[in-house]
Amino acid sequence: MKFPGRRRHKHYFPVEDKDPLINQLGSDSGLKHSYICGIDQIVVDIEAKVDQAFLDEFGLQRGMSQVIESDITNALYERLKRDNMIDYEFAGGTIGNTMHNYSVLADDRSVLLGVMSENIKVGSYAYKFLCNTSSRVDLNHLQPVDGPIGRCFTLIDDSGERTFAISAGLMNHLRPESISQSLIENASALVISAYLMRTTANETMTQATLQAVHYANQAGVPVVLTLGTKFLIEQDPQWWAEFVEKHVDILAMNEEEGEAITGFNDPLLAADKALDWVDLVICTAGPRGLFMAGYVDDRFKRETEYPLLPGAIAEFNRYEFSRGMRKADCKNPIRAYSHTAPYMGGPDTIKNTNGAGDCALAAVLHDLSANEYHKLNVPNSAKHEQQAITYSSLAQISKYANRASYEVLVQHSPRLSRGLPEREDSLEQSYWDK
C-alpha cells in the first residue's frame, strides 16, 4: 500500500523488516492488507470524432447516454471502422476505471465484480479489457457468461460534447448468487454506480447490486455511489435521493449530477444538501475544481491555515484540515467543506474528460483504504482515537484527487498507465506542504 498524496517522510508507520518491536510479532505475521470492492458493467470504450449528421444517421441524441440494440451496434461499429474514424479503444466502465486507477495509485489489490466472456479470443473485446486492466485488480470473482461483454461508444463532436451509445451485450447479467457475502463484508468499501440500476426485465445486474449493498449495509462497510450521468438521475430524482439516504455512505458526483439530485446548481450547496443523506461528498466542478464535504466531531475539528473562502456558505473551508467521520460516530457533528482549484490551473490542452471523475474518486478511495490499512496494522496508534473514515484531511484529499484527475485530462485513455511521480519538477513542494 502506497500512502496517498505526498508526505514529508519515507515511512509513515513502523515497517516490519526494520522495526524490532514489529518483528517480535513473529515472522509469519506480515502486514494485513485492505482492499476495495466494486461492481461494474464490463465494457470496452470506443472513442471516435463525429458530426451531428452521424448522430442523426444512427438516431442518437447528442450529449446523452443511451442503450442501443445489437443491429445498430454492428452497423455503427462497421461504419466507424470503414471510414477509419476510431481514435482509441480502451477497457472501460465507470467502476472498472476506478478500480484500475485505485490499484495503480495504491499499488494494492482491488476486486472487480461483473461478467466476463467465458470463451475469449485474441483481439476480442473481452481480450482488450483484460489486457488493459492492472494486474493488481482481482478479476477472479467475475461471473463467466456465454456471450459478449458490453461496448460503449464515446462519440465526440466539434464542440467537445460527448454522446454515449452503449451496447449491453451480456454485461447486465451478473446474478445475485455470484456476489460473495464474505468478500463484501471484509472490504474497505463497496463502490457502485447509478448505471447499475438501468436494466431491463430479463437482466439481473440491479438485483445483484442490491444484494451486495445489503451485505455492505449489514456489515457497516461504506457504500460509495458515483452518479454517472445527470440524465439518469433526472428521470426520478426523488427515488435516487431516497436510495442514497437509505443505503449510501459516500456520494461522488459532478456539478450537473449534483443539481439533478439536489436541485442546487451551486456545487457547494449541492454537496451541503447531500450531507443530509450521506457522510462524505465529492463533487467535481470542471474548471472550478473539486469540492468536498463531510462531518467531523466538534472535539476533533481542525481549522484551516489557508485564507477563508467566500461562497454560498460563508467561510465554508474553516474546518477543511479535519478528517472525515461518519455522522453517527460524532457526539456533536459539524459540517466541514473544502475546495481545491484545478491542479496547475488545469492542462493547456484537455485531451479527454472521460474518466477524470473516476480517477478523482480512485484517489479518495485510496485515502479511505489507507486509513483501514493503517488501522489494521497499527490499531493502537493515536491516529485512531478519532473514529475517522479518512486517513488525511479533506483539504489534502481534495488536492490529491485533483492531482490524480489531471493525469487523465492530459492523456487519451481514461485509465492511468502509472502512479503519480515521486518528484514533480513542475510543482512546488509547497502545494503539498500547505
Automatic annotation (TrEMBL):
Named cofactor requirement(s): Mg(2+)
InterPro entries from the UniProt entry: Carb_kinase_PfkB-like (IPR052700), IngK (IPR046405), PfkB_dom (IPR011611), Ribokinase-like (IPR029056)
Reactions catalysed, as given in the entry: inosine + ATP = IMP + ADP + H(+); guanosine + ATP = GMP + ADP + H(+)
Record has Transferase as a keyword: yes
Pathway in which this enzyme or protein is active: Purine metabolism; IMP biosynthesis via salvage pathway; IMP from inosine: step 1/1; Purine metabolism; GMP biosynthesis via salvage pathway
UniProt key word Metal-binding: no
Domain of life: Bacteria
Biological process per Gene Ontology, one example term: purine ribonucleoside salvage
Sites where the protein binds ATP: T284, A285, G286, P287, R288, G289, G357, N402
Occurrences of domain Carbohydrate kinase PfkB (ranges): 134-293
Swiss-Prot/TrEMBL keywords: ATP-binding, Kinase, Magnesium, Nucleotide-binding, Purine salvage, Transferase
EC number(s) on file: 2.7.1.73
MF terms in GO: ATP binding; guanosine kinase activity; inosine kinase activity
Binding positions (GMP): G93, T94, I95, G96, N97, R198
PANTHER family membership: CARBOHYDRATE KINASE PFKB DOMAIN-CONTAINING PROTEIN (PTHR43320:SF3), SUGAR KINASE (PTHR43320)
Function as written in the Swiss-Prot or TrEMBL entry: Catalyzes the phosphorylation of guanosine and inosine to GMP and IMP, respectively.
Record family assignment: Belongs to the carbohydrate kinase PfkB family.
Name of the protein described by the UniProt record: Guanosine-inosine kinase
Organism expressing this protein natively: Pseudoalteromonas byunsanensis
Lineage of origin: Bacteria, Pseudomonadati, Pseudomonadota, Gammaproteobacteria, Alteromonadales
